[in-house]
Amino acid sequence: MRDGVKVVLIGQPNVGKSSLMNLLANESKAIVTEIPGTTRDPIKSDINIKGVPIHLVDTAGLRETDDIVEKLGIEKTWEAIHEADITLILDDVTDASQNFEDKFKKKLPKGQSIIIKNKIDLLKQKPSINYENDVPHIFISAKKGDGIQLLEKEILKIVGKDHKVSHKEDIFMARSRHIDALKKVNGAINKAIKNLEAPELVAEELMIAQKSLSQITGEFSSDDLLGQIFSQFCIGK
Hints:
Layout: E1 5-11, H1 17-25, E2 43-49, E3 52-58, H2 68-83, E4 86-92, H3 100-104, E5 112-118, E6 128-132, E7 135-139, H4 148-159, H5 162-165, H6 176-194, H7 199-217, H8 222-232
Parallel strand pairs: 1-3, 1-4, 4-5, 5-7
Antiparallel strand pairs: 2-3, 6-7
Helix pairs in contact: 6-7
């Protein structure tokens, strides 16, 4: 849960990587222009899909270039590709010459990938998905947002195959005091609901719930923290 899943967007310039990045992040994280090579350094955004933490990375477009700065950006793109749990490979569906997978498949590491055919709005196509050799091909419009649900669903499907996504086995652990705090929060909220006609009692129960929740979020005093530590551990000199 802490490490999340690293999802990297790759493709040639102007295929819509930055637009898709902004769509998934639900904010303008990446600059979108018609000028090839706008994105130089990887742009990162932490998002979640149905509660699953995703580390999303937009990268420089892969192409041959004499621009020294752009070359450095492309080198970082390949570094991000080799670190990715899931690779989103974007193509411009209106340009038959931009078959990224065929051009770079020998360089791509073996692993989970999704082929995204973007800009279906220009061809007035509807979002769809098909599979070729078990690799999903999803037709979307990053500009209009069409097909984004298909993409998110496919990402979650891959994440469900833990042994293929994770390089190591991560364990989410909660301390017993966290569980106890959540039980107190639940109890206080239920009492508040039962006493809605008595504002003073509701306020008191909500204050108890907030204080209990702060034991997990860290929003309580240092004295409280020391009390928690010394109550659970024997600390020598």
